[in-house]
Specification:
By secondary structure, the chain is an alpha+beta fold. The chain is elongated, with a radius of gyration of 29 Å. It starts with a helix and ends in an 8-residue tail after the last strand. It is a single-pass membrane protein. It comes from Pseudomonas benzenivorans. Pfam families: GspH (PF12019), N_methyl (PF07963).
Length: 190
């Protein structure tokens, strides 16, 4: 009766019979897996508009927080001039008695996003874009950030333009800094 060792010997006798994967074959498989995983991530929307809208909302909330601190520390009045597709920081010049842009141009939202605002419970009609009218006349902020630490009480909505798109809210009672909250009734999760 042959032993198990003797039975294996003919199969392993030639070196060419046992073959592993080459480094090139392994690298090709890793590249293919990487591409498939990348497509899966993009397909699920993890890196899509929902994430970008959250980033825009957090950026705006952070900007308001920084302006509130700067207003108190520098004893200056700041404001935000809002349009449906952009916002711009303004500072009040008490000597010339008018608002002027803190930076040259407004921060534009992505083309698929828009914002709307309610002041003291009333919806505010925002201009479609800053455009040439904003450059010819002095800009007036819709949201005030005062040196006393107070803010205009507001509710601001950032949303995707499509009907079933994500909707995010920022709101303040005039004393607390805004936080980003997802609309529970509408929109999809990010």
């Amino acid at each position: 009766m042959p032993t198990a060792r003797a039975a294996l010997t003919p199969h392993c006798a030639g070196r060419g019979a046992v073959r592993g994967f080459t480094l090139v074959e392994l690298l090709v498989v890793l590249v293919i897996l990487g591409v498939l995983i990348g497509l899966a991530v993009l397909g699920t929307g993890v890196a899509g508009p929902a994430r970008e809208l959250h980033a825009e909302a957090e950026r705006l909330a952070g900007l308001i927080g920084v302006l509130a601190e700067e207003a108190v520390l520098d004893s200056r009045e700041y404001g935000l001039h809002l349009t449906a597709g952009a916002y711009q920081v303004l500072s009040y010049d008490p000597v010339q008695r008018h608002w002027r842009p803190l930076q040259g141009k407004p921060h534009d939202l992505p083309s698929w996003a828009e914002l709307s605002v309610e002041l003291e419970g009333e919806p505010l009609q925002l201009p479609a874009a800053a455009g040439e009218q904003g450059r010819k006349t002095s800009l007036t902020p819709q949201l005030l950030i005062l040196s006393s630490g107070e803010l205009s009480p507001f509710r601001l909505q950032l949303r995707e333009r499509r009907r079933d798109g994500l909707r995010l809210w920022l709101s303040s009672d005039g004393f607390q800094l805004p936080r980003v909250v997802q609309d529970a009734a509408k929109g999809r999760s990010g």
